[in-house]
Design brief:
This protein has 100 residues and is α+β, with helices and mostly antiparallel strands. It contains two helices and two strands; from the N terminus they run αββα. Strands 1-2 form a two-stranded antiparallel sheet. Strand 1 and strand 2 form a beta hairpin. The chain is globular. The mean pLDDT is 90.
Length: 100
């Protein structure tokens, strides 16, 4: 979630949001795609990024309370936790190429 703040680059926004929501530092990131979501009164563009991260400390929760637990998993096991269909499969393939 989140949004780019005034004066912030997309990359800075990703790093800030990851830190706010997971208490992890983005060491490396790569843009891997985007999706346009058509809502009744506007179009929202959601970007997708693959990131290499490291913990900054103990995770206690994100400011909005949306993230309640952090679990680091092997990319090959992601469907045990979420399944975004064919689009998600392609995003995960791209993400794995970036981080390997």
């Amino acid at each position: 979630g989140g949004a780019v703040e005034v004066g912030e680059t997309l990359e800075e926004s990703v790093a800030r949001e990851v830190q706010e929501e997971t208490n992890m530092r983005v060491m490396r990131q790569q843009f891997i795609g985007y999706q346009e979501v058509f809502e009744p009164t506007l179009v929202v563009t959601q970007t997708r990024h693959a990131c290499i991260v490291e913990p900054l400390g103990v995770f206690e929760g994100d400011p909005d309370g949306d993230v309640t637990e952090i679990k680091l998993i092997e990319p090959s096991e992601y469907k045990k936790y979420f399944d975004w269909g064919a689009v998600g499969e392609r995003l995960m393939q791209r993400a794995v190429l970036v981080v390997c």
